[in-house]
Design a protein that fits this description.
The protein has eight helices and 14 strands. The chain is an alpha/beta fold. The strands form five sheets. It has a four-stranded mixed β-sheet, with helices on one face.
């Protein structure tokens, strides 16, 4: 994944007695943003050849009512679920686009994600993305918006991510791993490994990995999952390095953990045919050289599920010498398998801790 880089033009407040703004409006009433004909007032520098701004369609009363309820949940962090039912051609997509634009603008200074899932990427999610992009351009925000990988829209640091809920959809990352989605359940698996470094005289200088813990979550609310991961990794295990599947929705988990544990601790991993092949060869090397050891049987559901996936794992070698390893979706999942492979990757560039100190002088 390669993010398109862009920078926000600097604004010189001395060039004009009043800062120039877009024609959008934000009204505050009792602490809540109000949905009106536009969305939010954003300061931006004057453009020499600015395109003509296109007014947004005014929202109807029933759209505004639903929009305000959604905003209260988002802005006040109330959480919960809201179901909105509208007749065909009643304007639900327009409401969605204006809400997305408002939330992007309100959070433009922070690295946060909003995720929208459609039944399919083509045409549904793609139409939603195009409508949002058109609204942002029409508002004169072109200098501070950008697209990433054809399914993400940036405004400042905030992002709106468009995904397909159909795991068989080949046109976009679906609800895949951080969580690895398959029919049946979505699971997030955490694998903890202890790295044991060899003596300097050892023939093989590669570290040995001992898997000492596995945890799995399924159907857990997102906030609860993120809190549990941060607590286990940062407070209980005090890990030195974490490799996180940052494919699809997993990128949100990776960004959260990087903020909680530190950028130097967390490394995002994005699955492609090439990166997965490299990961598979690393896993095979660790197994075949005896450097990877699993914990003894303890009768736990995690232990049983891991070995079940291990027995079902298959490998396919392509003509270009890349490797694909997987579990047939008709037979099961590969959550534990991929988590194990990421644990091996996490030990790749680590080294033994170095003690620092000084020799005390006599009488000190």
């Amino acid at each position: 994944m390669s993010a398109k880089s862009y920078h926000r033009p600097a604004h010189d407040s001395t060039s004009s007695p009043r800062a120039q703004t877009t024609p959008l409006t934000l009204r505050l009433s009792k602490g809540h943003p109000e949905l009106v004909e536009g969305t939010v007032r954003m300061q931006k520098p004057p453009a020499k050849s600015a395109k003509k701004r296109v007014p947004w369609p005014a929202l109807r009363p029933y759209q505004v009512e639903a929009g305000r309820a959604i905003l209260r949940c988002a802005v006040d962090r109330e959480g919960g679920s809201i179901s909105v039912m509208m007749a065909r051609q009643a304007g639900k997509n327009e409401l969605s686009a204006q809400l997305e634009a408002l939330l992007l603008a309100l959070n433009a200074r922070w690295a946060v994600d909003s995720i929208k899932c459609a039944p399919t990427f083509q045409p549904q999610a793609k139409i939603s993305l195009r409508r949002l992009w058109t609204r942002l351009q029409g508002a004169g925000l072109s200098p501070i918006i950008a697209k990433e990988d054809a399914y993400i829209v940036h405004l400042g640091q905030a992002r709106q991510v468009f995904l397909s809920a159909d795991i068989s959809d080949p046109l976009t990352p679906s609800l895949s791993r951080g969580h690895r989605a398959r029919s049946g359940h979505d699971a997030t698996v955490l694998t903890i490994a202890r790295v044991i470094y060899p003596q300097s005289s050892a023939l093989l200088q590669e570290p040995r990995l001992e898997i000492i813990e596995q945890r799995a979550w399924s159907g857990v609310p997102h906030d609860e999952l993120l809190s549990a991961l941060a607590n286990l990794l940062g407070r209980l295990w005090k890990v030195r390095r974490v490799v996180v599947d940052a494919t699809g929705l997993g990128e949100t988990i990776a960004r959260f953990l990087a903020k909680a544990l530190g950028q130097s601790v967390v490394s995002p991993f994005r699955f492609t045919a090439e990166t997965k092949s490299h990961l598979g060869y690393e896993l095979l090397a660790a197994v075949n050289t005896g450097r990877l050891r699993m914990y003894a049987t303890d009768g736990s559901p995690e232990y049983r599920e891991f070995w079940r996936e291990a027995e079902l794992t298959r490998a396919a070698y392509r003509p270009n010498r890349t490797l694909n390893f997987y579990v047939d979706p008709a037979k099961g999942h590969d959550d534990y398998l991929m988590s194990l492979a990421l644990a091996v990757a996490a030990a790749r560039d680590t080294g033994p801790r170095t003690a620092l100190g000084r020799i005390r002088e006599d009488g000190a």
